[in-house]
Amino acid sequence: MSTHPAVREWTYAEFARLPDDGNRYEVIAGELFVTPAPGSIHQAVSFRLSRLFGNFCEDQDAGTAYHAPYDVIFGEGDYMEPDLIFVRRDREDEVIKDHAAVAAPDLVVEILSDSTAHRDRGIKRERYAAYGVEEYWIIDINAKQVEVYRRIGGELHCARIENDWLSYRPLPGPELVIDVPHLLRPRNDHSKARQ
């Protein structure tokens, strides 16, 4: 399936009427992108990450995390569906609404696939920075690493690349620590996380 953009302007009302057919629809800088449903390894990593963030949010009362499909409305003509977003507890009322997030999450995570890698590292990173996302993770399953980008001077710059342990602390207080090899393990590898 093609992931080339359809050239036209999209309103959110039009975007919201697109079919729920297993494809991922996103409007980025006013252009529609259609991506096939992710594969099984992508889904396994997404599930593990969602579970880690869900436990962190509930156990530490740190905030709220949502995984795809969940829209983020950054502005007119920018409606994206990241693999995972996290919003700090003190910003939830400002950002999270019933139908979508309506402002920049504190953290956005994308899991690379062959059909999205160029876009995740390019235009999406640029748009996330423009709308004020403070931290952006790109999970590269093939390279077995997580690229951590931080917003500096209005742009998201790669701050570090983690392939062992990844820590995330949204505010002074609780910290989420992720075992990267365990997160990115093959879907049929049920070995225990490192202690």
Overview in brief:
The chain contains 6 helices and 12 strands. A hairpin with a 2-residue loop joins strand 9 and strand 10 (155-162). With 195 residues, the chain is an alpha+beta fold.
Low-confidence stretches: none
Any idea what the shape is? globular
Strand order of the largest sheet: 3-6-7-8-9-10
Supply the number of structural domains: 1
Distance between the termini: 42 Å
The largest pleated sheet is described as: 6 strands, mixed
What is the rounded Rg? 16 Å
Query: What is the class in the CATH system?
Result: Alpha Beta
Named CATH topology: tt1808, chain A
Order of helices and strands: HEEHEEEEHEHHEEEEEH
* Tally of helical segments: 6
Question: What's the β-strand tally?
Answer: 12
Helix content: 10-25%
CATH superfamily descriptor: tt1808, chain A
Pairing-aware structural class of the strands and helices? alpha+beta
Strand content: 25-35%
Structure description:
The chain is α+β, with helices and mostly antiparallel strands. The protein is built from six helices and twelve strands. The chain has helices at 12-16, 40-60, 92-95, 117-121, 123-130, 180-183; strands at 24-28, 31-35, 63-67, 72-75, 78-80, 84-88, 107-111, 135-140, 145-152, 155-162, 165-168, 176-179. The strands form four sheets. It has a six-stranded mixed beta sheet. It has a two-stranded antiparallel ribbon with strand order 1-2. Strand 9 (145-152) and strand 10 (155-162) form a beta hairpin. The longest helix is centred in the first third of the chain and has 21 residues, at 40-60. The chain is globular, with a radius of gyration of 16 Å. The relative contact order is 0.14.
